[in-house]
Amino acid sequence: MRRPGDSLRASSVSRSFEGVHALRDVTLELGRAEITGLIGPNGAGKSTLVNVLSGFDRPTSGTVELEGRDVTRWSPSRRGRHGLSRTFQHSHAFRSLSVRENLEVAALGVGTVAREARRRAAELLETLGLTSQAEALAGTLAQGDERRLGVARALATRPRFILLDEPAAGLPEAEVPDFAQAVRDVRDDHDAGVLLIDHNMALIMGLCDRIYVLDQGRVLAEGTPDEIRANLDVAAAYLGESAVHDADDEG
Ligand SMILES: Nc1ncnc2c1ncn2[C@@H]1O[C@H](COP(=O)(O)OP(=O)(O)OP(=O)(O)O)[C@@H](O)[C@H]1O
Ligand SMILES: [Mg+2]
């Protein structure tokens, strides 16, 4: 189904930080109109991979291709103008601008004309359930609204590929189903390829078409949710590590 030139691809990507091997020989492909999950314990390298894919970081070795073009050395904004967008694990919104203004600025940032930016902002307020908060300053938002603004800002550039780094973290449990539907809509209505990082396994299993498991910078497994669920080695590595971290959190 996936055509060459129709994907975002990391090929044999490694990234070291002074002795820390954050990514080791990672190959990952993200197709259009599908949701690809990226899971793994804290420190596995998930955010580093998103940074490398989106241009906020450069790999020590390996390449990134966007629709068949080598973009490894392209800036984030150049990748943005060519259809790639991301969210951050922590909010990067302009705190003293309103929610609506944040969306308009994001659209303008990729060269959208003002009228179209306003139209797109209004549409995204609706899609992400932010209409009642449109004139609120981003810095005053509750965590759930702030998470949705992050996704709306990334969508304001009309991406063909969107990388979501823990977009649901901190969302109230009751809001997760609506949020999941919004991510499905990105795939189905915008035909975008979505990379979704989250520690909520139920959300990942229910939403993703394919899943990659990272552990200590390596791809441990890749497959459908059923295949990943059946992979006991993965479960041991993932759940074992999570258990360790949960214990740390309590202590
Ligand atoms: N700028 C940096 N300088 C030094 N080390 C870094 C840097 N960025 C990441 N690392 C290290 O690389 C490894 C991978 O980190 P990364 O943030 O990618 O993990 P993660 O899978 O996103 O974790 P989490 O689930 O906690 O968000 C960690 O050991 C981290 O400390
Ligand atoms: Mg991370």
Notes on the structure:
The protein is α/β, with parallel strands linked by helices and 251 residues long. It has two domains: 1-83 and 160-251, Rossmann fold, CATH 3.40.50.300; 91-158, Helicase, Ruva Protein, domain 3 (Orthogonal Bundle). It is built from nine helices and ten strands. The strands form two sheets. A six-stranded mixed β-sheet has the order 6-7-8-3-9-10, sandwiched between helices. It has a four-stranded antiparallel β-sheet with strand order 2-1-4-5, covered by helices on one side. Strand 9 and strand 10 (218-223) form a beta hairpin. Helix 3 (99-109) crosses helix 4 and helix 3 (99-109) packs parallel to helix 5. The chain is globular, with a radius of gyration of 18 Å. The termini are far apart. The structure holds adenosine-5'-triphosphate (ATP) and magnesium ion. Magnesium ion binds at residues 46-47, 89.
Give the N-terminus to C-terminus distance in angstroms: 48 Å
Strand order of the largest sheet: 6-7-8-3-9-10
Tell me how many strands there are: 10
Task: Give the helices and strands as they follow along the chain.
Answer: EEEHEEHEHHHEHEHEEHH
Poorly predicted ranges (pLDDT <50, ≥5 residues)?
A: 243-251
What proportion of the residues is helical, as a percent range? 25-40%
Estimated share of beta-strand residues: 15-25%
Distinct small molecules bound, one entry per kind: adenosine-5'-triphosphate, magnesium ion
